[in-house]
């Protein structure tokens, strides 16, 4: 069971959906917020999450650049990254998995979808 | 007295004529004196003489008075000494032979010697002439009473006849001997082979060197031996029988050119001889042998046979020749051999042999043929004519023929010309055809020259320009005199080295047509190199026999068209590129738009949910209805956006084909619709599906859309029945579908028992956003089948729908099982 999450997403609305579902269903989970890749890398110097939930389209450092940066840093290599994006095309899925993403989810359009997604992420060993 | 006289005269009695003459003779007037005074010896002797039948004669006394008897009488002939000789003195009687007989008489009278002569020639005068008379006689003494020799008794026999005949015989014998000797000499020296064979054994009595040479045997083996001892072969060749027959019948046998085998130095040799077997008769006329005269004519016969053979050959040759042939002999050109062909060619009837050429074909005279024939015969120079016009009179009208013919002098073995061999070929048809061809060739050349297209004829291996149309000259851009009647690449050097030499050469050599379209040729025209484009046809130019004489070239200058097309192609290419870019931009736009539209739509949906949640019980029924409508709208908006997104990404080329097991795809799609399938209690019927090369996600989309349609468009009171079948298509079937064959296409049919659609909508339903039903009746974006169509086409296949309203729908999908290119539109 994950206890510490780093949610990396520039979209405030999506962060709200995520936190809403987490707060309601997984109250014990600590969720730190980063608004882009660079922000995440900065925080990771002092914070080690159990899992990172990563958006792709972000300013300053997008999700792909972030994944490449993580790959180059052996300290971060052990932390699983799950991509959650609006995109759902195969090319993007394959691309991010190739960059080391553990899983890929399309952002749901229902709260139940968010809940199911988090359950699914947490279910993973 | 009478008695006494009778008695006394009795010694004179009888004796025939001479007896009477003697008795009547007046002996008293002679020195003998009267009869009664005769001495006894005389009486006795005369008595003996007169009565003897043997010729006897007596000289008596010193005067040698003569007595003779009848037997002697013929010796004196008819008109001669008889009867005067009786009582005559010897010397008076025989003056002509006195020289001969006096010495003999004297021998008897003086020496008492008897003289005897046989066949002594004592010519006497009788029968009016001196005759050679032969006598066998004896003179003997008659001794008187006194003991003196008183008389000479001549007992004689005229042997003239005997002697004469003996002389004749001797002469004959001499002559025979002479002639035999001559014969031998003749035989031995004869310029022909001769021999004489004697007796039934045919013993060689004489043979000359020639016959010995002919026999090929030494003289010593032949002379004195039966001829066939050595000539064993000849015996069995019938010569012995011939000889026997000549011996038997005495008939001469002659043969000409008889073959006979003779051994020469042990080698059998066939020789030919003329020979004569002549019976050879002895002195008595009986046939004793055969004289053989032979002439070795082997050389002649062989030569003759050869001649005959060669003549036969010539005859055979002529008679069997498939073309007109004839042999004319002598200066008068007598027709000696003609074959049917020449007889037919002349048309002068068939009974021509033995007539002369001049008789049979008088119309040739004015055509110079007689002179030619005579010249050939005289000079021995053969004459050959080709395509020579010869007018022959047939049915009293001169007809025009053309012949190839030869007059060849024929020489005998001595080299003397004895005739002319005429061979001919009736080439009238050919010649007329040639003339027609010539005319039509003329027409053709004319046609070429005035043709409104560029045309030319290149003759021979040098490709000499013999005819060229004005258009061609203009195309070449050279003065006419620079190109005409010259090899094309000499007059047109700038056309060299562009592959044309090889092409024209090949057409000329192989006879293969060469066609080229829009061939660029660089020509130097108006002081600059211009590329012109030509459609051209190079065709072999043949004579009537099909021999290639040259090449005809027909050229159409398509430079303007080619340039125009190139311009158009350029424009099309530009437009296509621009269109492609527009399409890509559009696709990109659709992607970005739909992608970016998703977020607000998704957020509207989620926030609506959160609003409802946060309002809780405070939502009045009217607000609740509005919230429902917002949720539905946003959900539908999302569906639309996602479908458009899916549609726009199908052919983005970012995915590759890979083997796809359609069973797995279909199972997974079924699984995704599990709830609906259960709810509608759908029934499936499908076989094991194939594995094909495809994009897996698109196959999923395809089956997903089809299945979803089938589950959607079903009346509420009906259970869906979905059947999938498939088969492989053969190439013809693939081609009939308008697809490229060769990739092992499969056809999958997906049918249901739903509401179906009218057949007129069968194509429409694949258009994007096309809906046949109200949204409230059946949900959907109207993109699903458009996606299916795009997927099928992206896989180089096709999809079509078959249905009738209320009859359910069938979707027929054809896909290649192997993909050769990359995904894309057809």
From TrEMBL, chain A:
Entry-annotated residues carrying 4-aspartylphosphate: 55
InterPro entries hit by this protein: CheY-like_superfamily, Sig_transdc_resp-reg_receiver, TCS_response_regulator
Pfam families listed in its UniProt record: Response_reg
UniProt source species: Flavihumibacter solisilvae
Keywords: Phosphoprotein
Domain Response regulatory: 4-122
UniProt xrefs under PANTHER family: RESPONSE REGULATOR RCP1 (PTHR44520:SF2), RESPONSE REGULATOR RCP1-RELATED (PTHR44520)
Protein name according to UniProt: Response regulatory domain-containing protein
From TrEMBL, chain B:
Keywords: Kinase, Phosphoprotein, Transferase
Protein's organism: Flavihumibacter solisilvae
Pfam families in the cross-refs: HATPase_c, HisKA, PAS, PAS_4
Catalytic activity: ATP + protein L-histidine = ADP + protein N-phospho-L-histidine
Full protein name: histidine kinase
MF term (GO), any: phosphorelay sensor kinase activity
Enzymatic class: transferase
SUPFAM superfamilies in UniProt: ATPase domain of HSP90 chaperone/DNA topoisomerase II/histidine kinase (SSF55874), Homodimeric domain of signal transducing histidine kinase (SSF47384), PYP-like sensor domain (PAS domain) (SSF55785)
GO biological process, one term: regulation of DNA-templated transcription
Cited Gene3D superfamilies: 1.10.287.130, Histidine kinase-like ATPase, C-terminal domain, PAS domain
Superkingdom per UniProt: Bacteria
Residues annotated as domain PAC: 256-309, 386-439, 517-570
Keyword flag NAD: no
Enzyme Commission number(s) from the entry: 2.7.13.3
């Amino acid at each position: 069971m994950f206890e510490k999450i780093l949610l990396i997403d520039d979209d405030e609305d999506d962060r709200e959906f995520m936190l809403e579902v987490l707060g309601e269903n997984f109250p014990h989970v600590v969720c730190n917020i980063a608004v882009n890749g660079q922000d995440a890398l900065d925080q990771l110097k002092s914070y080690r999450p159990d899992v990172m939930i990563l958006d792709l389209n972000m300013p300053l450092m997008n999700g792909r650049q972030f994944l490449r940066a993580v790959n180059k840093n052996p300290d971060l290599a052990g932390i699983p990254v799950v991509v959650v994006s609006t995109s759902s095309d195969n090319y993007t899925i394959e691309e991010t998995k190739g960059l080391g993403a553990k899983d890929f989810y399309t952002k749901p359009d229902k709260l139940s979808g968010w809940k199911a997604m988090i359950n699914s992420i947490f279910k993973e060993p | 007295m009478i008695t006494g006289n009778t008695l006394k005269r009795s010694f004179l009695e009888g004796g025939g004529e001479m007896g009477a003459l003697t008795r009547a003779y007046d002996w008293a007037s002679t020195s003998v004196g009267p009869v009664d005074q005769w001495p006894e010896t005389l009486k006795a002797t005369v008595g003996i003489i007169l009565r003897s039948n043997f010729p006897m004669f007596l000289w008596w006394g010193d005067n040698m008075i003569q007595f003779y008897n009848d037997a002697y009488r013929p010796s004196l002939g008819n008109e001669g000494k008889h009867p005067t000789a009786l009582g005559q003195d010897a010397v008076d009687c025989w003056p002509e032979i006195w020289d001969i007989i006096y010495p003999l008489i004297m021998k008897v009278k003086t020496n008492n010697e008897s003289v005897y002569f046989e066949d002594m020639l004592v010519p006497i005068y009788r029968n009016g002439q001196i005759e050679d008379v032969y006598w066998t006689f004896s003179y003997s003494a008659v001794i008187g009473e006194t003991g003196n020799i008183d008389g000479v008794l001549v007992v004689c026999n005229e042997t003239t006849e005997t002697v004469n005949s003996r002389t004749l015989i001797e002469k004959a014998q001499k002559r025979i001997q002479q002639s035999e000797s001559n014969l031998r000499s003749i035989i031995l020296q004869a310029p022909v082979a001769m021999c004489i064979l004697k007796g039934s054994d045919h013993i060689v009595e004489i043979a000359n060197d020639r016959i010995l040479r002919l026999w090929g045997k030494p003289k010593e083996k032949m002379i004195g031996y039966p001829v066939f001892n050595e000539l064993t072969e000849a015996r069995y060749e019938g010569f012995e029988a011939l000889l026997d027959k000549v011996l038997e019948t005495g008939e001469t046998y002659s043969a000409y050119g008889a073959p006979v085998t003779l051994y020469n130095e042990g080698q059998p040799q066939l020789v030919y001889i003329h020979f004569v077997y002549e019976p050879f008769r002895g002195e008595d006329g009986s046939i004793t042998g055969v004289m053989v005269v032979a002439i070795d004519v082997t050389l002649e016969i062989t030569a003759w046979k050869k001649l005959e053979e060669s003549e036969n050959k010539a005859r055979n040759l002529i008679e069997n020749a498939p073309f007109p042939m004839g042999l004319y002999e002598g200066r008068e050109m007598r027709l000696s051999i003609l074959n049917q062909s020449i007889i037919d060619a002349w048309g002068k009837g068939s009974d021509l042999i033995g007539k002369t050429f001049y008789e049979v074909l008088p119309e040739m005279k004015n055509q110079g043929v007689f002179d030619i024939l005579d010249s050939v015969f005289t000079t021995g120079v053969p004459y050959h004519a080709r395509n020579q016009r010869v007018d022959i009179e047939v049915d009293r009208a001169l007809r025009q023929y053309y012949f190839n013919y030869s007059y060849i002098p024929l020489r005998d073995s001595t080299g003397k010309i004895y005739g002319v061999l005429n061979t001919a070929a009736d080439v009238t048809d050919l010649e007329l055809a040639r003339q027609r061809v010539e005319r039509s060739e003329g027409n053709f050349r004319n046609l070429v020259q005035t043709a409104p297209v560029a045309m030319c004829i290149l003759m021979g291996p040098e490709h000499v320009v013999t005819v060229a149309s004005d258009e061609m000259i203009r195309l070449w851009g050279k003065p006419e005199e620079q190109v005409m009647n010259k090899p094309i690449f000499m007059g047109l050097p700038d056309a060299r080295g562009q592959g044309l030499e090889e092409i024209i050469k090949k057409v000329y050599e192989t006879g293969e047509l060469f066609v080229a379209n829009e061939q660029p040729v660089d020509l130097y025209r108006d002081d600059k190199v211009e590329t012109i484009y030509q459609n051209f046809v190079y065709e072999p130019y043949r004579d009537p026999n099909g021999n290639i004489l040259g090449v005809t070239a027909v050229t159409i200058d398509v430079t303007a068209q080619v340039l125009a097309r190139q311009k158009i192609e350029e424009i099309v290419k530009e437009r296509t590129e621009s269109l492609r870019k527009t399409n890509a931009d559009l696709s990109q736009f659709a992607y970005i738009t739909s992608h970016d539209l998703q977020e607000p739509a998704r957020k509207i949906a989620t926030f609506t949910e959160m609003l409802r949640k946060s309002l809780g019980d405070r939502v009045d029924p009217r607000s609740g209805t509005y919230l429902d409508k917002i949720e539905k709208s946003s959900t539908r908006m999302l569906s639309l956006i996602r479908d458009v997104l899916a549609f726009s990404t199908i052919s983005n080329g970012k995915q590759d084909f890979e083997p796809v097991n359609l069973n797995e795809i279909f199972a997974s799609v079924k699984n995704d619709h599990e709830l609906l399938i259960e709810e509608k209690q759908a029934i499936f019927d499908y076989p094991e599906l194939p594995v094909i090369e495809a994009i897996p996600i698109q196959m999923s989309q395809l089956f997903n859309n089809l299945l979803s349609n089938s589950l959607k468009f079903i009346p509420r009171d009906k259970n869906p029945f979905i059947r999938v079948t498939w088969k492989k298509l053969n190439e013809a079937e693939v081609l009939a579908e308008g697809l490229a064959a060769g990739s092992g296409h499969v056809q999958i049919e997906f049918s249901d028992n739903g509401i179906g659609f009218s057949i007129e909508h069968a194509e429409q339903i694949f258009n994007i956003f096309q809906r046949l039903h109200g949204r409230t009746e059946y949900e959907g974006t109207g993109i699903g089948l458009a996606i299916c169509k795009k997927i099928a086409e992206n896989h180089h296949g096709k999809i079509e729908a078959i249905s009738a309203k209320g009859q359910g729908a069938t979707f027929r999908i054809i896909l290649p099982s192997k993909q050769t290119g990359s995904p894309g539109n057809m």
